[in-house]
Amino acid sequence: MLKRFSISLEENLLESFDAYILAQSYNNRSEAIRDLIRKSLVKQAWENDSQVMGVITLVYDHHQPQLQEKVTEVQHNFHQHIVSTTHVHMDHSFCLEVIIVKGKAKEIQDLTDRLTALRGIRDGHLAMSSTGKELS
Length: 136
Description:
4 strands, Alpha-Beta Plaits, alpha+beta, four-stranded antiparallel beta sheet, 29% strand, single chain, 2 domains
């Protein structure tokens, strides 16, 4: 059930918010505010070490000696947090690994840090999300 409430903003802040809404292609202010609240709740879940979901992306040169084995070893050490992995051969040298993860925020961050610190990882990112429970 939707509940209606009102907020007061300075004129300049409202103008900036309306520009943001336009740039992000929201249909209205309510949708934008709901999205901002959800993003804030996801961030809070990560800061509170709650149960979270995430996606780790890694780009690496598979010619780097023993790198694939090290990536696999780290994943096996965190197997309880890995939901799914996808490996893409981008070209003759480079691979993309996409790892969907679930667990306590600090453990997921630790997994990400261990993977991205491996020699030969050219790019690594963690996209943080939630389990969705706190967003309804």
